[in-house]
Amino acid sequence: MHDYSVCGATIPCQECPKAVDNSIIYASHPRGFHLPAQKCEENIMIFLLKGEVLINSQEYAGTVLHAGEFILQAIGSKYEVLALTDAECVCYRFNQPEQFCEQRYKHIMAEVTPPLIFSPLKIIPELNYFLEASKSYLTEKRICRELLSFKRKELAFILGQFYSDYDLSMLVHPLSKYTSTFQYFVLQNHAKVKTVEELAQLGGYSTTTFRRIFNSVFHKPVYEWMMEKRKESIVYELRYTEATISEICYKYGFESLPHFSNFCKKNFGSSPRGLRQSHPA
């Protein structure tokens, strides 16, 4: 009966509707394993249980991570890993920290200055108990959504209860830094492109990765957000600039004036000319 779920369900774990990809995973790598420099598609916390690995990133340039230590690499950042010995780790991948106090997050951002040189945090006994216990079933690679949710909350509790604001500043500030950087890129460049794919390419992301990062930062689908900004820009130009209706039409990628007029009537309740006459520049 090993093909059946440990929860008692009479279907294989792989077919269970609660089965999800593990966001908390266990990994084991031999000495010499190399993860080439790459941009993080998600935030990732690396908890090293055994061995030594070399981390190379802006925050941890040439840093040796020892067993009993952990770091965070924020979404959008670049990092490289080289196993100096056989190594085992538990990794937590996420878009947004789960169950982390918003007020404390803001306090750390505003009041706590992070160190000039980042160093790995120590895995305290309470966290080590969590990691070793998690490892025992993470190696099975079959975990349902409810269990993952509990474990994420437990991890957030441990970090919040047993680590100081100064310790957490090494997690919070990088998260905020890369979030702000991504926001700046999107706000500065979205008007230069016509499609999500073009914007992703401009930033050096795959479309899938770009959508994932965008959702975590802006909390809505990128296409929906771009359409809202496009509408806002069209209305602004019709009402407050001297650009001709034809110029605005073709600037925003419409194939013809009738097509542009239908778009305006559908979304704004008036034709381009009507919008312009109601708010002369």
TrEMBL record:
Q: Which organism is it from?
A: Bacteroides oleiciplenus YIT 12058
Residues forming the HTH araC/xylS-type domain are 180-278
- What GO molecular function terms would the record report? DNA-binding transcription factor activity; sequence-specific DNA binding
Q: Which PROSITE patterns match?
A: HTH_ARAC_FAMILY_2 (PS01124), ZINC_FINGER_C2H2_1 (PS00028)
| One Pfam short name | HTH_18
**Name used for this protein in its record:** HTH araC/xylS-type domain-containing protein
Top-level division of the source organism's lineage: Bacteria
Q: Which InterPro entries match?
A: Homeodomain-like_sf, HTH_AraC, MarA-like, Znf_C2H2_type
Q: Which UniProt keywords apply?
A: DNA-binding, Transcription, Transcription regulation
